[in-house]
Amino acid sequence: MRRVAEQLAIPFTVGGGVRGVADADQLLSAGADKVAVNSAALERPRLVTELARKLGSQAVVVAIDTERGRVKTRAGTTETPRETVEWAKEAEARGAGEILLTSIDADGTREGYDLEITRAVAEAVSIPVIASGGAGTARHVADALRVAQAALLASILHEDPDRLTSLREELRGLGVPLRDAA
Predict the structure, then answer these.
(1) Which long-range contacts (CB under 8 A, 24 or more apart) does 25-34 make?
(2) Are 138 and 174 in contact (CB under 8 A)?
(3) Which of 6, 60, 85, 156 has the highest CB neighbour count under 10 A?
């Protein structure tokens, strides 16, 4: 984390293995700006409250993996009895500052984000929602940004990192307001 933090001029979030406040403190001390929790929060929802009280809501992201409106855990491999919108509302009530919503149905398809579930979650909470899963074109990203506050870009950039520059221009052409890159 320290080496990454030294190289980046943008805020970054780290997830994976955060089981308690001590884990989160360690990541933030190493330079992360936010921590994301998923499976541990589903197993012990009070974790979200504990993190928010200790670190502030602005540093707590609840990652939700969803498939057909239901929450999954363990990197999307295990079903839970939870409904996506209800879990997002509970996460907000417990102090989450953001929701990272990954549609397993759309993830990796490059056929567009699952705008239906993204819209449902964004309308149900007052905190920022980050759409994840499915970006293939600038139009997909623009569509996601019409219902969510942010959009995660993964495979669309993994194979061609230089695509970010042209993607930014395409998004501007589609009327999406962007900050200037550092």
Answers:
(1) 25/54, 25/55, 27/1, 28/55, 28/59, 30/1, 30/2, 30/5, 31/1, 31/2, 31/4, 31/5, 31/6, 32/1, 32/5, 33/59, 34/58, 34/59, 34/60, 34/61, 34/97, 34/98
(2) yes
(3) 60
Question: How does strand 60-67 pair with strand 70-73?
Answer: antiparallel
Banded model confidence at residue 182, pLDDT cuts 50, 70, 90: low
Domain boundary assignment for the chain: 2-173
CATH topology of domain 2-173: TIM Barrel (3.20.20)
Length of the chain: 182
CA distance 38 to 182: 30
Give pLDDT tens digits for 21-34.
999 999 999 999 99
pTM of the model: 0.94
> d(Cα 29, Cα 45) in Å, to the nearest integer?
24
Share of the chain above pLDDT 70, in %: 99
User: Three-state DSSP class for 135?
Assistant: coil
Identity of the amino acid at 72: K
For residue 81, which phi and psi values (nearest 5 degrees)? Answer: -80, 0
